Amino acid sequence: MKYGIAFVNAGPLSHPTLAVATARAAEAAGFESLWTVEHVLVPAGYESEYPYDPSGKMPGGETAAMPDPLIWMAYVAAATSTINLATGILIVPQRNPAVLAKEVATLDVLSGGRVMLGVGAGWLEEEFDALGVPFKDRGRRLDSHIATMRALWSDDKASVDDEFTSFTNCVSLPKPTRRTVPIVIGGHSEPAARRAGRLGDGFFPGKGSHDEIAHLLDVMRAAAEKAGRDPDAIEITASGAGLFGPDPQGELEKLAALGVQRAIIAPLAYDVASAEDVYAAWADRVIRA
Q1: Per-residue pLDDT band at 206 (split at 50, 70, 90)
Q2: Residue 25, C-beta contacts closer than 8 angstroms, at least 6 positions apart
Q3: According to DSSP H, which parts of the chain are helical?
Q4: 176 three-class SS
């Protein structure tokens, strides 16, 4: 099992000193990855339902700091050497795919091939409205942007012509270290699961009980087989409340039985002084148990 930490660029962890302390403590403790989140804008008084909290609102409210994940990752990459850096997730339909492909490839090269791109369609309709991006076509736009980025990463001269993007024989350099970047599809819905089966290198169900995750994984695997892909080649990332309980090993066994290969936890420390000890203690109890 691999281990990651989510929400690492939000709230207090947006502070540069604590960001570096957290990243270094996690790397030393044996965590495999750090997962960032994003919103370009949070319209005050939004009515869209945040799907990952019973309140329907994002933790921390509208005023919690949330730095751009790619810039945060670049800053942390310079202070670490082995831990992978991931978005969990980037709202790709809101972005220009050619610009994003360049940014991600650059970060991947500078970090030594440590980037994973978690992507999603987004849920905050008011944010799309404020950015001038149609909300209703975000799923099709996401599929298109994934294809565009992969073409720019892999092809010496890329050509794309679809509903959202059109260019011919365009060069984008640098290329990522593997001429691709792993794309992890995030989301808790059946459309997200089907997208992961069709297009994803990985799938990150954003929430759900063990039974709900199992259902989404069944949907993902069926979509992969329908697309002629090997469902076992799609890496599964998930979290579980039991990871913080009295029996984290039991929770890990349940996740592994579902096919989960990476377990994600929320941040454990919010001050520089305690970060190293807190993450080392959790690793001794769980990772190295």
Answers
A1: confident
A2: 269, 275, 276, 278, 279, 280
A3: 16-29, 69-77, 97-110, 125-131, 138-154, 190-199, 210-226, 248-258, 272-282
A4: coil
Parallel, antiparallel, or unpaired: how do β-strands 166-170 and 158-161 relate?
Answer: antiparallel
- b/e per residue, 240-250, with b = 16+ CB within 10 A? bebbeeeebee
Q: What confidence score (pLDDT) does residue 123 get?
A: 97
CB neighbour list of residue 191: distance below 8 Å, 6 or more residues apart? 121, 139
User: Which residues on neighbouring strands pair with residue 36, listed in sequence order?
Assistant: 87
Q: Count CB neighbours of 74 within 10 A.
A: 17
Q: Residue 60, exposed/middle/buried by CB under 10 A (0-12, 13-18, 19+)?
A: middle
182, two tokens: 């792993």
Give the pair of three-digit tokens for residue 212: 């709900």
Angle at 3 between CA 54 and CA 21, to 5 degrees: 90
Q: Angle at CA 92, nearest 5°, toward 130 and 94?
A: 20
Mean pLDDT for the chain? 96
Q: Each residue of 228-272: pLDDT tens digit?
A: 999 999 999 999 888 888 899 999 999 999 999 999 999 999 999
87 three-state secondary structure: strand
Cα 99 from Cα 66, distance rounded (Å): 21
Task: Kindly indicate the confidence band of residue 105, based on its pLDDT and cuts at 50, 70 and 90.
Answer: very high
